[in-house]
Amino acid sequence: MKTFDFPQYSPEWWLARKGVPTASGFKSIVTPKKFEPSKSMDAYACQLVAEKFDKFYSIEPEFETQAMREGSALEPDARAYYEFQRGHDVTEVGFCLTDDERFGCSPDGLIGEVGCLELKCPQPSTHVRYLHDGGLPDDYAPQCHGHLIVTGREWCDFMSYAPGLPPHLVRVHPDDKTELLRSSLEKFWNRYQEILASVEARHREYIDSEIDRRQDSNPKQMQSFVA
Q1: Which residues contact 215 (CB under 8 A, 6 or more apart)?
Q2: Is there a contact between 118 and 157 (Cβ–Cβ < 8 Å)?
Q3: Which residues contact 38 (CB under 8 A, 6 or more apart)?
């Protein structure tokens, strides 16, 4: 595993994950409940290919809901509560990559040499549902198992936190779902590379044709286009 220490959501963070399949997107590769191949796989691959050609991708998106802002504000409190509850020191990390640099993740912390952490600070009503249902919420199962694959850690702790309510804490170990995800990631990677190669070929054809056209019609415009 390769780690990067820049802050999450910084320009460096956006650039590092550009075009990289990440754990937060693995729910588009496998279905969250049964971990079957997702019908959204091609759409996710197309999104990643588009990122590779997006000159402005490293600029943080402006869209942010009130709930997202509130969740981000609560995250330090949630991390401190987890450290107290579990007796672990949490090391914050910006971004993690597999050694082959194909897949990435942004856990909310690394614990020693064996664990990692995923924190959620949802709306209280959502947190109550997690408490009532018990276990790892389906929506975050691909992400947590993805953390295990990318980091190679022995466990991932998922914690949902809402002030005034008991936390919902679940420890996730590698299991059959981890292996199902791992298999689907390989299939996804092959499909992603197939789509990328196709678009890159079309892009080269487009550039070459535009250079020829602009060179014939306006040499100065051609110089600007190539630059």
Answers
A1: 222
A2: yes
A3: 27, 28, 29, 30, 31, 44
159 lies in a domain?
A: yes
Task: Indicate the pTM of the whole model.
Answer: 0.88
Q: In this structure, what CATH number is given to the domain that contains residue 197?
A: 3.90.320.10
Q: Which of 100, 58, 102 is nearest to 191 (CA)?
A: 102
On whether residue 1 sits in a domain, the answer given is: no
Q: Would 61 be classed as within a structural domain?
A: yes
**Residue among 196, 151, 200, 203 nearest 178 (CA):** 151
| Number of domains the chain contains | 1
The two three-digit tokens of residue 12, written as one number: 């460096």
97: left (phi over 0), alpha (psi -120 to 50) or beta: beta
CA nearest neighbour of 33 among 139, 121, 146 = 139
pLDDT tens-digit readout, 111-167:
999 999 999 999 999 999 999 999 999 999 999 999 999 999 999 999 999 999 999
The whole domain housing 159 covers: 6-226
pLDDT digits (tens, 9 = 90+) for 71-125: 578 899 999 999 998 999 999 999 999 999 999 999 999 999 999 999 999 999 9
Identify the CA nearest to 160 among candidates 90, 95, 71, 92. Answer: 71
Report if residue 114 sits inside a domain: yes
Long-range Cβ pairs for the range 43-47 (8 Å, 24+): 44/188, 45/188, 45/191, 45/192, 45/195, 45/196, 46/195
